[in-house]
Amino acid sequence: MSLDEHESRRQLCSMSLGYTAYDVWATQARRERRYNIARLLNASSTVKRIRAECAFRALGEVGRTEANIARALAGLEPDTVATGPVTGTSALSRELMSRAAFALAEGRDLIAEELGDLYVCSGCGELMEGAPAVCAICGTVREGFLAFRAAESMGALGPNKLMRSLEQSIQTLHALMADLDDELLSHRVGTVSLKEMVGHLTDMDVVFRERAWLILETDNPRLPSAHPPTLEKAAMYADHTIGDLLDSFQVSRQQTLGLLRGLTAAAWHRTGHHIIFGTIPLTHQGNWVVEHERSHLIEMAQIRHDLLEAQSDNRPITLHDNLIPEILDGE
């Protein structure tokens, strides 16, 4: 094995492991609602992915699609080599991670003043805070950078898809609760029941609507800094009937849709100031509530399935870690 090939294999192993580490850590940060730290980790994982791809190509492992499929069927088995550290390997990466460690030591996410918009060069994988005109390493122009902006940290759905998602949740919730008796609806999987989750989604819808109203009716308002209600606070809904909980969600959601329906593109891009994310458009908060809701609806579908399955064999009900969308802390 030549020195160049050995280095490319070392890079491939190191960057692939680093990509996996940062990607999984980013998912965990989102579950803990540390969205800016998740943005940093997502950018870091992209750095590793791009550099792993460069090493993979340098090793001659990428041909025409016909050859790639044949290689996949034959079973790709690249040699592995010792890598050394696979994360925190650049000065900027260590600085950004140190900022995150400081914030976490204070029990919080990074705030807007502590983490700017991040960019990764699609040519070489260089990580940058702020976007220069060209990459200092390989000369790729700014238009070739991958962006990890605070304003898009919740997702990039546009107004039409946001409205469709908000509208569909009413029907989805009714379907998930159908044919379940009160005992099943009140059964706690971990620390929460389906009834409490429905109440929690209503609470979150109210917070979103209040923020949306502020953004639409005032100029660049400071959005309330208080954290939205957590699942822990939804315990009070355990004694409510599922009919009342579903009615409350539907009433709240119809009010939210009434506020948003017919908005112009300019209205969706009106902004407010959020202490964690900085200046953000209404679409940011729309993506925030939709992503939060989507995670819980997946979780609720899994719980419904497990509840019905458990009726027949009395096995304990558990939920896979990958489906738990939030830990009771943070924004």
Please characterize this protein's 3D structure.
By secondary structure, this protein is mainly alpha-helical. It folds into two domains: 3-148, no CATH class; 159-323, dinb family like domain (Four Helix Bundle (Hemerythrin (Met), subunit A), Up-down Bundle), CATH 1.20.120.450. It has ten helices and five strands; from the N terminus they run ααααβββαααααββα. The mean pLDDT is 90.
List the helices and strands and how they pair.
Layout: H1 3-31, H2 35-58, H3 65-74, H4 91-105, E1 118-121, E2 127-129, E3 145-148, H5 159-177, H6 182-186, H7 194-217, H8 242-260, H9 265-268, E4 271-274, E5 278-281, H10 282-313
Antiparallel strand pairs: 1-2, 1-3, 4-5
Helix pairs in contact: 1-2, 5-8, 5-10, 7-8, 7-10
- Mean pLDDT comes to 90
Structural class: mainly alpha
Q: For this structure, what is the CATH homologous superfamily of the largest domain?
A: dinb family like domain
Q: Give the fraction of residues assigned to helices.
A: 40-55%
Q: Helical stretch count?
A: 10
Order of helices and strands: HHHHEEEHHHHHEEH
Q: Hey, roughly how much beta strand do the residues contain?
A: 5-15%
Largest sheet: spatial strand order: 2-1-3
First-residue to last-residue Cα separation: 51 Å
